[in-house]
Specification:
Blueprint lengths: L1 H13 L9 E4 L6 H13 L4 E8 L2 E2 L4 H5 L14 H11 L3 E7 L15 H4 L33 H17 L4 E5 L14 H4 L5 H11 L11 H27 L3 E2 L1
Parallel strand pairs: 1-2, 2-4, 4-5, 5-6
Antiparallel strand pairs: 2-3
Amino acid sequence: NEAMSSLDEAIKNALPYFKNELKGVWVRPVENTPEKIEKTVERMHDAGITDIFLETYFHGKTIYDSKFLKSSGVISQREEFIGFDPLAVWIKEAHKRKMKVHIWFECFYVGNDNPKTTPNHILNVYPDWANKRFSNYDSIDPVPSLSEHNGYFLDPANFQVQAFLYGILNEIVSNYKIDGINLDYIRYPQTVDAGYSSYGKSNWGYTQTARQQFKDIYGIDPIEINYGTSDWELWSLFRQNKVSDFVKNVKQIAKYHNITVT
C-alpha cells in the first residue's frame, strides 16, 4: 500500500503541467434533479476539471427523452431520469463555469438486460440487429457476450444499425450545445485469446446480414472460413472496415457541427 501511494505521488509530481491542458472525467450520471447536478458540477469545477465526458447513451438508452428512439419504437429514456432532461442541465451548469461537455456514447453495446423479457428493448424490437458468435450463428435469439457481463451487442455490419446510431447522434448534436463526442464500444465483442483452439468459433460478426454482404463480395460464406487462412484475413478486414466506416461517418457529423471526436 505504501509503495502504491508513493507511486501515485511520484506520477502526480513527475507529469508536467501545461496551461489550458484538458483535465477530464468520465461520469455515469446518477443525479436525478437539477439541484444535484449543479452540486456535482460545482465540485468538479472546484477540483480543476475542465471537460466532462457525460455518459449520455448507454445500455441502449439515452438519459434524455429521445424523440428519435420513441419514433423507432424502443425505450426513449432511461427510467431513472423520466420527468426531466439531465443532459440539458449538465450542459447548462458546465458552460456556466466555462467547462466543456462531451457526450460519452456506447456504440454497439446495448447492456445486459435480457431482450426477450424487456419490452421495447432494441433487440426485442429489432432482433436481426444482434451480433452473433460463430458457435451461435444459427441462434434465433440474441446471443450475449459471456465475458462481458452477459451483455448484448449490435452488428456493426448492419446498415440499419449504423443508421440508427447516426440518428441518435444527429438528434443530440442538433438539439444540444455539446463540445464533443466520446465514442465507446466501437468494436466487436471479446473473443478468447488467439492461442486457444476455440478462437475461431469464439469470434463474432456471423450475422445473416454480414455473411451475405461478405458472400456477395468474395463468393464465400464466413462460416466456411478457418482461422489462419488467407480468406480469414479478408473476413477480419471486412469486420474492421465496418467499424472504421462508422467512426469516419461520426467524424463527418461532428465536423459539420464543429465539435471534436475522441
